[in-house]
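Issue 218. Parser rejects a valid record. Input:
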Amino acid sequence: METLLDVNNLVTSFRTADGKLPAVRGVSFSVNKGETLCIVGESGCGKSITTLSVMGLLPDNGEITEGSIYFQGEELTKKSDDQMRKHRGNDISMIFQEPMTALNPVFTVGYQIKEPLNLHTKLGKKEKKIRAIELLSQVGLSNPEKVLKKYPHELSGGMRQRVMIAIALACNPSLLIADEPTTALDVTIQAQILDLMDDLKDDLGMGVMMVTHDMGVVAEVADRVMVMYAGHVVETGKVEEIFERPQHPYTKGLLASVPNVDDEGHRLEAIPGSLPNLNEKITGCRFHPRCPFAMDKCKVDAPPHFRISDKHQSKCWLHEEVDSHEYQHKAYS
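Output the parser choked on:
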């Protein structure tokens, strides 16, 4: 498969009163053409910062201090903001977490859809309007000419999210990044949005990089899954492997916390403790204070990525100490 995005050893830090603190710590992954990579983990584990690093949209006090980001063979970390603008909204687009705050309340939907067309294409005024109508129809909005004239507050949450997708697709991007695209939407609209994104991915051949904490969403749309904890990638694999044979105790904890409506006797499990602060000094594995399998070694040495199968890796010392099958069904059971 053709690799669209290749991220290697990414370290993203923030300048604070306590010094420069890393929020993303040595993250490596790739996204291929026509596939969906889902990044999962608790709030604060570095998922959104990873996507903002790729987009070049970090806050003023944030910076990439190590690593590389290659998009279609081009190194993005060395580019200026002006150079990145040529990619943003054109080759790489992003759907932000909350459309009501991402959309500008003082401009019409039509104005905001045409904005990337103004920046990245040479279409005439009439052609841009036709393209905007096509996009709104493509994302399933009825009466698109009427929607073009509306302001964001005049639309429902589901309609605003569809408008965000239309804006992101305006220039037929090769890579679509979606940060919690179904947050605050009811389950019916959520399913429609996910189906829409999956159909558009297949039709346009895009690569999709989706950030979510909802394991149900992951099961529905992902081809591959990357599990993050405290700025680290702790497990990666095909979606079937992650759900059927999770290897890292943190991944097991996330899956155990998903409600099972088919099993009335199923008890939800919680991962004890909370994510460490950026300035919290933790030696060894950063998950060891919360891990039911923590050994002395875990508190001293950071584990490497152990290969479980061809496409499945887990960052846990248990793979060195015991056969993974011995503890596969013990954690959070």
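Fixed in the parser; the record now loads. Residues 34 and 202 are 7 Å apart (CA to CA).
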